[in-house]
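Might I ask for a little of your time on a matter of protein folding? What I wish to show you is a protein chain and, alongside it, a tokenised description of its three-dimensional fold. I should value your view on which stretches of the chain appear to form regular backbone elements. You will find the record immediately after this paragraph:
***
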Amino acid sequence: MAQNTVFAQIIKQIPRSVFQSFVVKNDADKFIRSMDSWTWFGALLFGQLSGHDSIRAIERVFATSDSRLASLGFGPVRRSTLADANRRRSLTLLEDIFSYTLMRANKVAPKKHGFKFHGPILALDSTTIELSLKLCPWAEFYSNRSAMKLHTAIDIASDVPQFAVVDLARHQDLPTIKSRPEQFAKGTTVLFDRGYLSYSWMNDLTQRQVHFVTRARDCFHFKVRKSNKTDRTQGYLCDQIISPFGARGTNYQGYLRRISYKDPDTKKKLVFLTNRFDLATKTICDLYKARWKVELFFKTLKQNLKIKKFLGVTENAVKAQIWMALIAYLLVQIVKFQLQSKVSMPDAMAVLGTLALMKQPLVFLLGNLPKTTRHPPTFQLSFRF
């Protein structure tokens, strides 16, 4: 039996019948004559996985790859039609595909996050994706810059983004997240920095039984209700039960836990706020430290997928490419989870991109390498004095 190409094995994680159901749902192929949604999706996904960052290159690959791409049901790709699709096609199709791929990823993703309590732990943050101000004036914001912003929350057990919001950078982070309260389920612990600090929002999270760990701002008014014992030799300066007050503090109804920590090595002092009263002081500090996983996700996305150079300059084209980068990331993660691969995401993307049109089983590319045994030489040299 002939082996499918690497690209075919990846894109088949999304069954064609499932994809077509989303096409029908969104009327994505209505009035389309030259390039259907499946071909548009395949061209963008191939560009992400293979590293092709120009429409001309994608057109040439689809024209010269014989039957390896045509056998997947893709039609012809022309520069003009691909550029027009990026400019005009509805993004709801890609958002639905992202949601489906996320569901698939969560089914096979590891569930253990390394902490001794139950419930998912999400690291929330946003990243700025720089654009050319000259080419994309519609995305202008302060300091004569032009950019989009990606908001997401990473499950620290699997490094999988649990949702994504692609918006203009000039829109503030907190209102964007507050407009989507359904993103955090009951029992979830959310980790976020001071950019999302809002007493009214934290009060809303507490009312919905969502836990959080964040950092306090320097100007912070509170009353100490109780002080717990801490090991100051380990850097835990205080562990207090407090009630905030002041113009904004009154928006939080109830008590908070305030933990002050001084890193023994760097001497940097950090003050944490949380509504978790059941965990050890060290666990709260370790939870906030785990927030760095979302920073690693953004770094991986920017360095290994194509969200620096875009195939179009319209808002629709830029957003389409960002959504495709997220979908490509999830597809590779699904394959890694299925194979129980320990290969890092940068290495996986490098291998898959280089061999995208080669016929090789994914288990050979992403599986564990065979162990090599080093044997000593058959004889030892002797030194005489």
Summary: The first strand starts at residue 121 and ends at 131. DSSP finds 14 helices and ten strands in the chain.
